[in-house]
Amino acid sequence: MAQHEDQHEQGSELSDVQLRVRALETVLTEKGYIDPAALDLIIETYETKIGPHNGARVIAKAWSDPAFKRALLEDASKAVRTLGHESRVGDHLVAVENTPRLHNMIVCTLCSCYPWEVLGLPPVWYKSAPYRSRAVKDPRGVLADFGVKLPKDTEIRVWDSTAETRYVVLPMRPPGTDGWSEERLAQLVTRDCMIGTGLPKNPGEVA
Amino acid sequence: MDGIHDMGGMDGFGKVEPEANEPVFHAPWEGRVLALQRAMGYAGAWAIDMSRAAQERLPPQVYLTASYYQRWALAMEHNIIERGYAGEDEIAGGHALRAGKPLRRKLTTEVIKDGMTRGSFFRQAQAPARFKPGDRVRTKNIHPTTHTRLPRYARGRVGVVALAHGCHAFPDAVALDQGDNPQWLYTVVFDGRELWGPDTDPTLKVSIDAFEPYLDPA
């Protein structure tokens, strides 16, 4: 679908959807409901300021600061709020911790609920039918799609975000990172490892 | 409603295909749709549950073939027209023909920080909580034809309350314009075998966030 759209939009004609959205914006602006300059700012914020790097900072801090980790697991909204992100965190963020025996994975089977405040906007695959349908029934199969294989006896805990609570995974700190600064640790934290479809990078993968 | 949006456990959709170096938006109009939705939400034009309900009511063939932001745009049009914020004639013509309806507030660049903060769904409790972490509960076997957040795969199943999240606005009521009707919210954990049968991977546990009206003691 995405490919089809791209081809469509590369043509000289504006696509139907593009025209329709433009019409909506014009009508809503003329009605006085919205300010296009505010829309520009929202888009710019999501394109340049809010993204997985925000979450990576949170995880790296939790890896290096035991008091922050406790606070994060106790009340993630409160703990993350103290870091002052661009998109201020709401009231309903929960951090769930991976251990050698337990692997967490986040999904929204009903729509696309995702912790925007710490990860930015969700990738297309997270919102897609394959992920939403299979994550709750065959999470190991989904992990295989991502090239991740976990020990057979690791408990897989899938969190279906069916209300306004938002979940973020606190992955295990990779071995061989003793003494690393938070900034350096943050480079190991991928978006997918905070969703639970991936693992953090190995120390050797970053400079 | 038992709609196509309720995808948990369905087969046949194929592999998950991550896109390398995915852009935030695949076309500029996607960003406009997201920002429009955000601005209209901030203005109090409709609640997020009403957006979800409008998407769920799209014909299944549309839901499955439209892209994510196309679905948003279709749902937004629906809410704009149904709630009288603009007419079909105005959207078709691309210009306002009549004055707008009053809205609670407007998202401007001055209040953008406010607009980027996620709203709170906590509400004043109307009754004490019936359940606490550790309680065994059975989800109700209900099939409302309107908006609900109890997925099909988790209906009529026994699980354990793991977390209590306080009292929240109840989406099933909000989507019907019946007000917040605050309800206690819990994370309920199910054994994979309770959901998918005895052959299921024994290491699987799945939770949903369930509002109290979805639950009975078990």
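qc> The mean pLDDT of chain B is 97.
qc> done
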